[in-house]
Amino acid sequence: MPATIYDVAALAGVSIKSVSRVLNREPNVSAALQAKVQDAVNSLDYRPSLSARTLAGSSSYLIAAFVDADLTLEHWRSGRGSDYLSRLQFGALVECRKAGYHLLVELVDYGASSLEARLSALLRSLRPDGVLLTPPNADDPTVLDILERNGTPFVRLGADRDLGRGMRVFMDDRKAAADMTAHLIGLGHRRIGFVSGPAAYPASQARRLGYEEALSAHDLITEPELIVEGDFTFASGQRAGKALLTSTRRPSAIFASNDDMALGVLNAAASLGVSTPGGVSVCGFDDTPSAMFSTPPLTTVRQPVAEMAAAATRMLLEAARDPARTVKKIDYTLVERASTQPPG
Amino acid sequence: MPATIYDVAALAGVSIKSVSRVLNREPNVSAALQAKVQDAVNSLDYRPSLSARTLAGSSSYLIAAFVDADLTLEHWRSGRGSDYLSRLQFGALVECRKAGYHLLVELVDYGASSLEARLSALLRSLRPDGVLLTPPNADDPTVLDILERNGTPFVRLGADRDLGRGMRVFMDDRKAAADMTAHLIGLGHRRIGFVSGPAAYPASQARRLGYEEALSAHDLITEPELIVEGDFTFASGQRAGKALLTSTRRPSAIFASNDDMALGVLNAAASLGVSTPGGVSVCGFDDTPSAMFSTPPLTTVRQPVAEMAAAATRMLLEAARDPARTVKKIDYTLVERASTQPPG
DNA sequence: GTGAAAGCGCTAACAC
DNA sequence: GTGTTAGCGCTTTCAC
Fold it and tell me: What does pLDDT average to over chain B?
């Protein structure tokens, strides 16, 4: 049997409360006691039981990430993997580890009628000290309600609207898209196609607004036929690319609002015999792994998901001691690779 | 405050033990009692506390996946993401969800001297009901020792050697590599380059053996200059591709033993002006998302990581009631895409 | 500065 | 079939 707090107390010749004090770095502990306890802990190789701590105390040393089940499963099933989740997990896990916390990824059926039941079940059976909310569900009022009713601190990741609820970490999608568009204009492009994402995502709207904003800032007009709606998938990028590249006045550059779609555009160009970047420049948004290894490698916006998740996790951990509503904006980076160049 | 088992018992007019019985589907419960308790549970929206159950009982409803910290962090940092982990998680999460379990992904420093301490700390503080072990650490004797000493059921994923310890889920890497090589030979290739993985991975060895086996089965000799060692990274694939394609007697096909390296070979070919598959056929191993979206899309072996993880998780859940040493072999698939064709 | 006692919300062992 | 009683291993409260 593993050692318990009683074993440690007995060996050190002190009360279990003293052991607890040392373990939790509580004030008012003499150096002598501290040393005795530490020795006993070491020699017994004692580790406190998480469940006992959770049951007795007020924290569970658990951070939960709620991700959309449908979306994630669909990503996974199609073999695309979920780069977003992967990076989120990276950032969160690293911070959790530093603080001795654990990360639990939970799939939630945001669409289901049982959503409320399942969420509150999760909150009450797990008692996480904080919750990470991912888009597009970081804006769901039902979810926010449950979390607030439960008193669980949460961070809304990638949420660009401040609803005055919970904490928030986001990046300026609109400005990033405007920057990318301006970059293309700077290269000399005048007819720039745009492949938008699904309207349900706030980020889709923001990116499109950024594109239009940059155009008008450079006295170019937004031509409706240059904008094609996709749904963030490779296939929709292919379709959009084909449509744009076979139109009568073909654009010299195409800005797809995520990398998967940009790769689709690349593929469409190749099969139409249009070279990249010679015949058409292509750029994306996100900086997924595939963007790095595509032919040609993709110019894109690096969305710092891991950094966002790390910052969010830190907020949650701090919120445990000092509840405060924090909002943080994270910087993006324009990554210039070989898929863009001045029009030929 | 959330409802407890006492609230339910009081409302139903029964003892807490009866509530517990109904909750845990224990035998010897009358239909009437069952109904009363169920009603009370529903009307109070009661959910048992995980930590209380864990503390009092013998199971924690937790499955832990131990993954190599260095490896995973390095993957993540470089922006490549970790497709392996992502798929593992998919398979495991789905099964956990079905069974009302939770999945905890823990980064473990397998190299560190503190490995033993950290592992046993994890086991004792979390008390997982089962552990998923990933390669290359599923073969680490230290890890197996700790797990066995602790009495925690574990599954060694992708471990091709049966050490008579724990459970095991794997695929036949050697045969898969042999099949792929035979496929190239069938297309008419006679000089086939091979990019191997790092020797530390058992899978590397197996894939290389499969390659050699297929060659000799078709009366072709293994030429040492056709084999270049890589380390499973894109960059090492680039180097290997360059070396093979600039050699005096250039191979007409290159089989890289994972997709990242195959993409590197593709890139090297493009920058040397060698077309794919016209000038050289290229194939990989794993079927990562990038393989699907590369130019040209990559012929590869689909390693069913998610299915393996799902099977492993099911084994762990069953092991809880009935400890048995199970071994399971999972089938792979050859995925033929555009990067291979008969030699031109 | 330290300790004793009382739970936290369950399951397990044993009555009835 | 059902209930009673002890814990599980900690933190919390309150004494000293």
Answer: 92
Tokens of B315: 């084994």
Q: Does B293 touch chain A (CB under 8 A)?
A: yes
Nearest CA to CA, how far is A17 from chain B (Å)? 19
Q: Which of residues 78-117 of B touch A (CB under 8 A)?
A: 79-83, 85-87, 89-90, 93-94, 97, 102-107, 117
Q: Rounded to whole angstroms, how far apart are CA atoms B206 and A317? A: 45
Helices (H), chain B: 5-12, 16-23, 31-44, 50-56, 69-77, 83-99, 115-126, 141-150, 173-187, 202-217, 234-245, 259-271, 289-293, 305-321
- Residue A45 sits at the chain B interface (C-beta within 8 Å): yes
CB atoms within 10 A of CB B151: 8
Q: What are phi and psi of A179, to 5 degrees?
A: -60, -45
Distance CA A337, CA A177 (A): 16
From A55, A97, A124, residue closest to B47, measured CB to CB: A124
Q: Smallest Cβ distance to B87: which of A50, A81, A264?
A: A81
Counting every residue, how long is chain A? 344
Q: For residue B79, which residues of chain A lie inside 8 Å, CB to CB? A: 287, 289, 292
User: Smallest CA–C1' separation from A124: which nucleotide?
Assistant: C9
Q: Which residues pair with B167 in a beta bridge?
A: B155
Residues with CB under 7 A from strand D: A 1-2, 4-6, 16-17, 20, 23-24, 46-49, 52-53, 55-58; B 14-18, 21, 28-30, 32-33, 52, 55-56
In chain A, where do the E strands start and end? 62-68, 102-108, 130-133, 154-157, 167-171, 192-196, 227-229, 253-256, 281-283, 300-302, 327-330, 333-335
The dihedral through the CA atoms of B245, B251, B253, B257 has a sign that is negative
Give one DSSP letter per residue of A286-344, joined into a string.
Answer: B--HHHHHSSSPPBEEE--HHHHHHHHHHHHHHHHHS----EEEE--EEE--TT--S--
Question: What is the CA B15 to C1' C16 distance in angstroms?
Answer: 14
Torsion sign over Cα A309, A314, A316, A317: positive
Cβ–Cβ < 8 Å for B178, B216? no
Q: CA A153 from chain center: how many Å?
A: 17
Shortest Cα–Cα distance, A315 to chain B (Å): 21
Contact call for A49 and B83, based on CB within 8 A:
no
Chain A contact set for B117 (CB, 8 A): 45
Is residue B65 within 8 angstroms of chain A, CB to CB?
Answer: no
Please, which residues bridge with residue A170 across strands? Answer: A329
Could you give the CA distance from residue B281 to residue B137 in angstroms, rounded to a whole number? Answer: 33
Locate tokens 């590599």: which residue?
A: B177
Structure tokens given for B190: 């006679």
Are the CB atoms for B212 and B233 separated by under 8 Å?
Answer: no
Structure tokens at A332: 């993006």
More confident residue, A327 or B111: A327
Torsion of CA B182, B286, A261, A88, to 10 degrees: 180
Q: Does residue A277 contact residue A296 with C-beta atoms inside 8 Å?
A: yes
pLDDT in tens, B197-254: 998 888 999 999 999 999 999 999 999 999 999 998 899 999 999 999 999 999 999 9
Say if CB A334 and CB A301 are below 8 A apart. Answer: yes
* pLDDT, tens only, A28-67: 888 998 999 999 999 998 999 999 999 998 899 999 999 8
